[in-house]
Design a protein that fits this description.
The chain has a seven-stranded mixed sheet with strand order 3-2-1-4-5-8-7, covered by helices on one side. Strands 6-9 form a two-stranded antiparallel sheet. The longest helix has 14 residues. It contains five helices and nine strands, in the order ααβαβαββαβββββ. By secondary structure, the chain is α/β, with parallel strands linked by helices. The protein has a single domain, classed as 3-Layer(aba) Sandwich (Rossmann fold), CATH 3.40.50. The chain is globular, with a radius of gyration of 15 Å. Bound molecules: S-adenosylmethionine. S-adenosylmethionine binds next to α3 and β2.
């Protein structure tokens, strides 16, 4: 996992507005995200900062759900669209350049949300994430690699560092106090 975390250090000049580097989740982790979220064919999943789109493509292929991938990086979105077309998944998937930090970002009204943010960005997005969850448990999200500070996840895959949140996730201390300095600036 740590080896997968590091290659971004070689990332060329990031696009303006890019708040997190491009790092891919390994295939096994993608499968686990989908499993933890309990994605079914009735769901719509969004990967916020989708990179090469692997999580939502995999979710659509394995569960026949709908999927949305947004990323600030036009080149990455072009690659996602190419793969979507090659796999004939354009009826189930939507990829778009977008900036999740815009004030009215609403997770495209999806049921399932996943993101691979760094702690500083999780902190920034925390109010939006908590506002997005619903009392009927219809909405849930998984944070990859870093937990949301001061919210106790409803489910955890500690080995893979996946943190699941829904309406039941309560305020409180969880885990270690990992902070921004874990990641070198880019
Ligand atoms: C750590 S990567 C995760 C990629 C993918 N979700 C995965 O797990 O394989 C984070 C992604 O967020 C994107 N990103 C960074 N800042 C963004 C922003 N402001 N709006 C949308 N996407 C952004 C990056 O381009 C990058 O692809």
């Amino acid at each position: 996992m740590d080896n997968d975390w590091m290659p971004y250090a070689n990332e060329p000049e990031p696009p303006q507005g890019q708040l997190i580097p491009f790092i891919t989740s390994p295939p096994q982790l993608c499968e686990e995200v989908i499993k933890l979220l309990g994605v079914t064919e009735k769901d719509k999943i969004i990967d916020v900062g989708c990179g090469d789109g692997r999580i939502v493509i995999s979710a659509v292929e394995s569960t026949h759900c709908k999927g949305v991938g947004i990323d600030i990086n036009q080149d990455l979105i072009n690659g996602c669209i190419k793969e979507m077309n090659e796999k004939n998944l354009n009826n189930s998937l939507h990829f778009q350049v977008d900036d999740f930090s815009r004030p009215d970002f609403d997770f495209y009204q999806c049921d399932c949300v996943c993101f691979y943010f760094v702690p500083r960005i999780i902190k920034m997005m925390k109010p939006k994430i908590l506002e997005y969850l619903r009392a009927d448990h219809s909405r849930r999200c998984v944070s990859i690699r870093f937990p949301i500070k001061n919210i106790i996840p409803t489910k955890v895959n500690e080995a893979m560092k996946l943190y699941y949140y829904d309406w039941q996730s309560k305020e409180g201390k969880y885990g270690t106090n990992e902070d921004d300095c874990l990641l070198p600036a880019f």
